[in-house]
Amino acid sequence: MTTTVYFATNRVVNDPKDRPGSYTFNITSPLRPQDVTYGTAFVDSANLTADTVGAITSIHDLQQGGFADSTIADLSAGTRNILVFIHGFANSFENAITRAAFNREWLFDGGADTAVVAFSWPSRGHVIEPPFPSFAYRWDQTTAGQSGPHLMAFFANLLPILDAARAKGRRAFLLAHSMGNWALQAAVETWFAHGNGDAFMFHEALLAAADEMDTSFDYGPAGRLSGLSRLARRISIYYNHNDKVLDDLSELINGAKRLGQDGPRGRTDPARFPSATYRMFDCSDITDYQRDFQGSHQYYRRSPNVRSDIVSVMV
Q1: Predicted structure pTM score
Q2: Is residue 163 part of a domain?
Q3: Which of 75, 130, 275, 305 is most deeply buried (CB count within 10 A of its CB)?
């Protein structure tokens, strides 16, 4: 089984032969979002039963600044819904692309057929790395935040494609996992800071195990994630009191609660979080998956119950 993943990345690409390992953890110039590289990857052997994400077999249609015409034509055709995926902490380029393929396959298995588009920001791909325990985490957090202009440019290129697909009756979804939400908040804030207005990008934004401040929706009309509701019709927030990565690593390093631990601060206030716009899903008592250190942070794809809920939203 081969899965197609359209992608954009602001990683520096070193190898002109387009090998997956040539996509480094270094970031392209923060001042030049046109340096974002777009392409198409083919992933084989994603296995839902064995929980294996497969491997990239080839990469095609590489270019800077925007998608290839063939990609635009396929995504705009309106034959499938569109899933945009932003990966989390400790993901190499290959991790990010194969995880996107895996997500597409389990959604398809559940009845939600989508074309998948991944944005890969420059994570180092490691949880723990010398010279000190928090080095890899802090690196990733910094580059995720610096990816705001590049992710904003990606959204701008994607918007007319989403408009065309929606005109043909299709829907678009955003799935941001873990520290991908830190990159997302930087993009949303940058979008409005550059004078862009409200836009109908996504029918639903799904924020899973978000490694972002729990006060992210409290920054006025467009700060951090407070402007996301101006780009998505509804926002689903998946949180888990037993997420060991957020509890034992992220909160400790940041000295502050994370959005994925107990949802946004003040989440029970209907005036701040009206149910028509914000949907809260508490995953704390779901036990149908292995809840070890890393597993507890991956419940959005490992738990059949959570996967079923995400599918129900999308279909």
Answers
A1: 0.95
A2: yes
A3: 75
